[in-house]
Amino acid sequence: AQLERELRHAIDTQQFELYYQVQVDHLKHPLGAEALIRWIQPDGGAVSPARFIPLAEESGQILALGQWVLESACAQLRAWQSEPAMSELAVAVNVSARQFHQPDFCEQVRSVLRRYGVDPGLLKLELTEGVLLENMEDTIASMQALRELGVRFALDDFGTGYSSLQYLKRLPLDQLKIDQSFVRDLASDGNDQAIVRTIIAMARSLNLDVIAEGVETDAQCALLGQLGCQSYQGYLFGKPMPAPALPELIRSGF
Ligand code: G
Ligand code: G
Ligand code: MN
Ligand code: NA
Description:
Elements: H1 2-12, E1 16-25, E2 30-40, E3 46-47, H2 49-59, H3 62-80, E4 90-94, H4 97-100, H5 105-116, E5 123-127, H6 129-133, H7 136-149, E6 152-158, H8 165-168, E7 175-178, H9 190-205, E8 209-212, H10 218-226, E9 231-233, E10 241-242, H11 245-252
Parallel strand pairs: 2-4, 4-5, 5-6, 6-7, 7-8, 8-9
Antiparallel strand pairs: 1-2, 1-9, 1-10, 2-3
Helix pairs in contact: 3-5, 5-7
The chain binds guanosine-5'-monophosphate (G) (2 copies), manganese (II) ion and sodium ion.
């Protein structure tokens, strides 16, 4: 309850910032960045989103937070349009179940994109299986409406949930994100290699692209490449960082 009160105050007083973590292709060319929220308290302390996002979901504050994240990401996309190294990069935004299942979610996204004059093709929404399994018919309809605008979808934390081909093939997704738990010990764990190989084969048969998250070492990256992975995200290329630091990182070539 204490943290919930602090969270409400933080929303009122704008204590949030979006950090960005670069995503690259197999040649290490930048493709885009994932937006990750940071709560930085006035005393400089940070609260992990792993702690406050679940709380915000329970209390409903995720709706205000999620709207702020969307706004802030679109404002950033707009600003990057005038920076040479940045203008073609996509931004991936995490969307929680409660946020996605609001009746006017599509309209919110459409309206923010229009307001900032952002190409919808530069916005990717990251959903988790939890979001997708809830109310599947409505979910598919909302995704289709957004895809008609040009917005793309990634399935986050892939492999940690239910992951049946049965429902995957019905969902209008663009990308699977291999969860970092399969990447961590990839070099030494044959089971993880088999899982990653299976995920990539599954993605291929569904015509989805694949990004691996949590890539920290050259060995992991090389192995992922051998297994057929096309894109990467992780500390090897860059940690999540404040927006102004990203163009510098990209111009420096990692
Ligand atoms: O960046 P990392 O520790 O810092 O993020 C922890 C968790 O918080 C991840 O599961 C991530 O998906 C989630 N998260 C980060 N930013 C956002 C956001 O803007 N919205 C939602 N819904 N979740 C987020
Ligand atoms: O669940 P989601 O994929 O949205 O959140 C990504 C989380 O993974 C964030 O907390 C982010 O800070 C973290 N992360 C990103 N890259 C790495 C990495 O290379 N190693 C580790 N340990 N965590 C990472
Ligand atoms: Mn994510
Ligand atoms: Na994830």
